[in-house]
Amino acid sequence: MENRIIECVPNFSEGVDKNVIEKIAEKIRSVESVKLLDIDPGIATNRTVMTFVGEPERVVEAAFQAVKSAAELIDMRHHKGAHPRLGATDVLPLIPISGVTLEECALMAQRLAERIADELNIPTYCYEAAALKPERKNLAVVREGEYEALPKKLSDPTTAPDFGCRPYDVDIARTGATIVGARDFLIAVNFNLNTTSTRRANAVAFDVREKGRPLREGNPITGKIVKDSNGQPVMKPGTLKACKAIGWFIDEYGIAQVSMNLTDISVTPLHIAFEEVCRAAAERGLRVTGTEIVGLIPKKALLEAGKYFLKKQHRSLGLSDKEIIRIAIKSLGLDDLKEFKPEEKIIEEIIADHSGRNLIDMTCRGFAEETASESPAPGGGSISAYMGALGAALATMVANLSAHKPGWDDQWETFSQVAEKGHLIMEELLNLVDEDTVAFNKIMEVFSMPKSTPEEKENRSKKLQEATLYATQVPLKTIKTSFKAFELLRMMAETGNPNSVSDAGVGALAARSAVIGAYLNVKINAAGLSDRPIAQSLVDEATSLKNKAEKLEKEILEIVENKIDNPSK
């Protein structure tokens, strides 16, 4: 299951006083499960940008605490800086990273803006995807006139804040107003060129950026700029939407680059921008030698890129995320100038728990030894899920080998689809390895609950039934998920690479063992449920799938043995 992660990038109107900056940062760090990735103060702008990520609810809480701290520490009556600003916390965008939509972020932003106004008494506006008025999608419109215009803005219904509107007073004078919004992730990327010419790099940038270049009469470089009836230059749009770009020369590398901001990667993904810059560069006699990511990047951008290039090669997509990202790194040339380290550049990798506490993060030997120890978990439920994962993995392996088999190029896409399905099933079952142990631990936690009073006994009994139901549902989920592998294993036994037909057979054995093992866990846990109709329905469902799995395993093994005994057929 994809983790739900959002990013928040608030801008605070203080870039000089390190003590103030650190106090605000500490409020963010104090919220559990939130990771503060970057603090970027600017002296000339007198402004600090902070970047933090985590689960949506936690990030929103950290944002609120940061706004509260900034309101207490920053007095806008004394603020001067080169950057436009409206308040102590100027802008505060929420950005979807994974498992969350932009629309969901917009709703969170609106609720956060209302909470800031209600609890902190700070007027708030909503902008971009969270805008409550169409014209406020544009940040510049919201911030027009800046802090100094607040008294007038508050008194005019057309410019009044979305939440917390009241007559200008000393508190507003001190905190200013805050602008809360939601936007897509912005990727800052530079494309390396085999030239030192800034002019040529700029030409490529103008070819592709959405704004394009001024239209000229005659010669497209030196001709007179065409203007509209208002005297403004008529622009010839570039080929990429949601894209801003310029060309520049970098002394450090001794090359020119096309420096680009992709403002909506759902419109123009990274790999499409790369391909288009390559095309435009080639038309001007240039070559893109590599790519440089500035800052961080969401995992999905590289997974999409890796899959795009694998498809171009007619290669299977049923690979691990790690392998797909490796293909993206090599295809985009992300290691052209320096080593690209996913654990330092990909947001999800930075915040991932690499402590190795999960069973699926153990080595094969470590997992076996942990199972063999005197601890009751992991037990049969986790082992069943792992056997199912191995069965799905074997189906995926046969599909990948078949997609890559010489002479079978016309079938690569079919086998790739099987491999992708198998990989997803494998991932689900790997997650169930740990979930089964979590379910067992929930029961153990109930046994440690107090039971001195009638109320405590009643509560303990209720919690035990809830934990037991969960512990019964998890192995049933393992059965259902493992069962899905049989369809793929049968296909691979019948149509896959004949040299790997025995692997499909072993996969069927593993999947069947997973189903039967999980079935035993459903039965033993269901026996502890006081609601007998529910218990019986769970057992009946598990029994039905077990019987079907045994039948399918037998059929697949017959196919496998027939192919081994008659290799020419």
How much of the residues is beta strand, in percent?
A: 5-15%
Count the DSSP helices.
18
Q: What is the helix content? A: 40-55%
Rounded to the nearest angstrom, the radius of gyration is: 29 Å
Q: What's the story with the biggest beta sheet?
A: 7 strands, mixed
Number of strand elements: 13
Average pLDDT for all residues: 93
Structural description of this entry:
With 569 residues, this protein is an alpha+beta fold. 52% of the residues lie in helices and 13% in strands. It has 18 helices and 13 strands. The strands form three sheets. Strands 1, 2, 3, 4, 5, 6 and 7 form a seven-stranded mixed β-sheet that branches. Strands 11-12-8-13 form a four-stranded antiparallel β-sheet. The protein is flat.
What secondary-structure arrangement, pairings included, does this model have?
Layout: E1 5-8, E2 11-12, H1 18-29, E3 35-42, E4 47-54, H2 56-73, E5 91-98, H3 102-120, E6 124-128, H4 139-142, H5 150-155, H6 170-175, E7 178-182, E8 187-193, H7 198-208, E9 213-214, E10 235-236, E11 243-250, E12 255-262, H8 270-283, E13 288-294, H9 299-312, H10 321-332, H11 342-345, H12 347-351, H13 364-372, H14 380-403, H15 412-447, H16 454-495, H17 501-526, H18 532-565
Parallel strand pairs: 5-7, 6-7
Antiparallel strand pairs: 1-4, 1-5, 2-4, 3-4, 8-12, 8-13, 9-10, 11-12
